[in-house]
Amino acid sequence: MMLFYLNNKFKILIPLLLISCIAFAQFPPAAGQEGSTAISKDSSVFIAYAVMCEVERGYKDISMPDSGFVNYGEVSNALGQADNNVLSLGDGGVATLGFHVPIYNGEGFDFCVFENALNDTFLELAFVEVSSDGENFFRFPATSLTQTETQTETFGATMPEKINNLAGKYRLFYGTPFDLEEMKNIPGLNVDSITQIRIVDVVGSIDDSFATFDSQGNKINDPWPTPFASGGFDLDAIAVIHNLFSQAISENRKPDFRVFPNPVLDHLNFESSREYHIELLTLEGKIVFRAHSKRLVIGMGDFPKGIYLLKVSNDKRCSIRKIIKR
C-alpha cells in the first residue's frame, strides 16, 4: 500500500518539477553580457547579405483594421549590412529575402537577423522561416517564456533571457544568430542549400483573437499595440555566416584540420596538414587572436567565459567554428 502511495506521489511531483524548470528556464542574455550569443554587425564572420526582398505589410494595429498598414522604410533598407535604416513590417507583416548564393549548414551559427531595438528590453519580435525551394517554408522552433497574464505595453520591457529562436532578441547593431543544424532532417528542407529566409512579425497581443504562439503553444507577449507607421518588427538586415560559395567543407568532405578541446578551459589546439589564416573573435567582432600556421596552441585561460568564433581560412576555403570557453 505504501509503494502505491509513493508511486502516485512521484507521478504528481514529476510534472510539478518539469513545470518549475520551464518557468525558470533561461536563454542567452542581452548583448555584451556573459553567455550572450549576440553578434556585432561589424564582425568579420559575415560573408554576405540579403540581395532581394519582398514584403507584405501588416496593420498598424491588427485589432483596428481602420488604422491602416505600416509604411515606414523601403524594401532596400532590409538589404546589405545593418545600418539602422529599416523596413517596418507591422502586425503580422511578412518579409521574404533572397541571396546570391544559398546558405549552408556549417559549424555553429549560419546567419543573423538584425532589428533596431534601442535598448536591451524593448524587443519587437519575429518568427524566422527558411526554404530551400522558394515555396515551402519551415519555422525555427521559437520559445517565449515571458509571462502572459498582463499585456506588455507599447513601450514595455521583454527580457531576452526569456526568448529563444525569435528574431529581435538583441538591440540595435547586434544580430540574433540562427543555426540550421536545428532544422536538419525536416522533410522537404535541404539545410545545405537555403535560398530564402522569411521574417514574420509576432503580434505581441495576449488577446485570444490576435495572439501568436511559440512552438510550445505559449502566447508570445511583446510590446503591443504599436499603432505607428513604423509599428511591428523593424528589419535591418540578414547577414550570412556560411554559404555554398565560401564553405568548401561539406558532409562528404571532412576538414583537413582539427580544433580541440571544445569546450576549452585553458588551451585550444589547432592542427592541420596545410597552413591556414586563423582568427579567434568575440561575438562582438573583436579579434582576440590571429596567426598563420599549420599547428598552434591558443592560450585561453584568462579569457572570459562564453562563446567565441574561430575563423579558419585560406584563398580556397573558409570555415567558422563555435568555441565554448568554460
Helix content: under 10%
Assess the beta-strand content as a share of residues.
Answer: 25-35%
The CATH level-2 architecture of the largest domain is identified as Sandwich
Report the principal-axis shape: globular
Task: Please tell me about this protein's structure.
The structure is a single chain. The protein is mainly β and about 325 residues long. The chain has two domains: about 40-240, Sandwich (Jelly Rolls), CATH 2.60.120.260; about 255-325, Immunoglobulin-like (Sandwich), CATH 2.60.40. It is about 5% helix and about 35% strand. It is built from one helix and 18 strands. The protein has one helix at about 1-25; strands at about 40, 50, 50-55, 85-90, 95-105, 110-115, 125-130, 140, 145, 165, 175-180, 195-200, 235-240, 255-260, 265-280, 285-300, 305-315, 320-325. The strands form four sheets. Strands 1, 2, 4, 6, 11 and 13 form a six-stranded antiparallel beta sheet that branches. Strands 3-5-12-7-8 form a five-stranded antiparallel beta sheet, with no helix packed on it. Strands 14, 15, 16, 17 and 18 form a five-stranded antiparallel beta sheet that branches. The longest helix has 22 residues, at about 1-25.
